[in-house]
Recover the amino acids of this structure.
């Protein structure tokens, strides 16, 4: 946008005189800049002129002037540039107007004043926001230092924390005593477990020995019953053998008596002499009968002896076989009982070990569950602290980005404003030179009018 406009077709001179305006001095102070004063004056002739200007200083300083005039022959506006400078910001400006055609410099002047005021307000609010954020940042850093100092046992302001060094030795001694007591406790518990295992083993051995004793007593009672039966059988056989022996003795005795009686009868007959007819040989027959009877008796005796011997041998064999079978069975039963006892002892040992290991496992699981719960609580607390720190960092990052965006926008606006000021200064310098030349030409032409008359 141009701050100075002229129209060659609308340039008109006033017939009655010349319009002129003089600008006033203006000064500003402060880095934010300020506005100048406006002054005006009247010229000669039928018209009047008005000139105005202001200066602005910001950093290196910049300023320009603006004016407009009005004559009888028409309305015009013109302007003359100014400048400003200084570290604190100062400026002055001046302007002159003539009664010839002009433009919209006054309107542009008011818009630029409003723009400068807006820029000043935004810059002031930006600086206030920066100061507030710096203050909040300092407070937050102080809170963080206080929190860390509390965690370490001190103060962020240099104040020393509580001295717990005197308690460290006591704590170490108590820890050592606790460790020693725990070790002794574990040793006693281990001894109790070993004693319990030994007692269980001895109890199992006692029960096994008692069961074995009862089994042996039952076997002994059975064998005694068998022995009694065998004794009865032996007694019966002995009584039968005695009866047969007595019968055989009785038969032998009877036979001897009969033989003696026959011999006596035969001797008597021989001594008797009878005149009878000759008969059979009775003695021969008697001898034959005796021999037959003796043969039969011997045969019966031998058969009885053979039968007795065979029965005795078979009974002895049966008794021997039974005894061997009983002995073998007893040995097998003893071996099986020993194996069973060993297996039961091993089973009880394994079961006891299993129970002990299960109890140890349960205790270990309980301890580790407590430790894991404690660690989880610590992790949750640390995560909450991290979340708070992250939220604060995100808030600070968002504020920083907002401030950075605002700073960038302000820098861009300031750069644009400086560019506009530079362009305005260049344009106003050119317009001042042109105005001075036209004023000189007008003065020359005015001075020549009376001469012509």
């Amino acid at each position: 946008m141009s701050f100075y406009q002229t129209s060659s077709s609308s340039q008109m001179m006033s017939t009655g005189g010349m319009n002129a305006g003089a600008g006033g001095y203006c000064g500003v102070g402060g880095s934010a800049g300020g506005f100048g004063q406006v002054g005006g004056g009247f010229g000669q002739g039928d018209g009047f002129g008005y000139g105005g200007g202001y200066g602005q200083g910001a950093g290196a300083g910049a300023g320009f002037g603006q004016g407009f005039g009005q004559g009888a022959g028409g309305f015009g506006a013109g302007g003359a540039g100014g400048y400003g400078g200084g570290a604190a910001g100062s400026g002055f400006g001046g302007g002159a107007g003539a009664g010839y055609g002009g433009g919209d410099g006054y309107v542009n002047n008011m818009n630029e004043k409003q723009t400068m005021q807006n820029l000043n307000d935004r810059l002031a609010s930006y600086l206030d926001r920066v100061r507030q954020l710096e203050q909040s940042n300092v407070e937050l850093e102080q809170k963080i230092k206080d929190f860390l100092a509390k965690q370490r046992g001190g103060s962020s302001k240099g104040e020393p924390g509580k001295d717990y060094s005197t308690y460290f030795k006591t704590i170490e001694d108590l820890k050592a005593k606790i460790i020693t007591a725990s070790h002794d406790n574990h040793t006693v518990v281990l001894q109790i477990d070993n004693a319990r295992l030994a007692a269980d083993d001895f109890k199992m051995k006692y029960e096994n020995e008692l069961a074995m004793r009862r089994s042996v007593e039952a076997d002994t009672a059975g064998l005694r019953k068998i022995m009694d039966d065998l004794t009865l059988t032996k007694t019966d056989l002995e009584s039968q053998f005695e009866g047969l022996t007595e019968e055989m003795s009785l038969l032998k005795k009877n036979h001897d008596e009969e033989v003696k009686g026959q011999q006596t009868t035969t001797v008597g007959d021989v001594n008797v002499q009878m005149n009878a007819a000759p008969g059979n040989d009775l003695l021969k027959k008697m001898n034959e009968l005796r021999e037959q009877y003796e043969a039969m008796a011997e045969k019966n005796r031998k058969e009885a002896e053979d039968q007795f011997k065979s029965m005795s041998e078979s009974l002895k064999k049966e008794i021997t076989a039974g005894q061997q079978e009983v002995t073998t069975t007893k040995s097998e039963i003893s071996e099986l009982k020993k194996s069973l006892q060993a297996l039961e002892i091993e089973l009880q040992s394994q079961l006891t070990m299993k129970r002990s290991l299960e109890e140890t496992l349960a205790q270990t699981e309980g301890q580790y569950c407590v430790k894991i719960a404690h660690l989880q609580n610590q992790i949750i607390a640390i995560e909450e602290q991290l979340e708070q720190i992250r939220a604060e960092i995100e808030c600070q990052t968002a504020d920083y980005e907002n401030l950075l965006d605002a700073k960038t926008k302000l820098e861009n606006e300031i750069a644009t404003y400086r560019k506009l000021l530079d362009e305005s200064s260049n344009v106003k310098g050119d317009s001042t030179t042109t105005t001075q030349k036209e004023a000189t030409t007008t003065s020359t032409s005015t001075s020549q009018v009376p001469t012509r008359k």
About this structure: Residues 40 and 50 are 5 Å apart (CA to CA).
